[in-house]
Amino acid sequence: MNIFKYIKKAIVFALVVFSLSLALQSPSYAAALEGKWKLTSLNNSPVPEQFNITIHFFHNAIA
Question: Global pTM?
Answer without folding.
Answer: 0.45
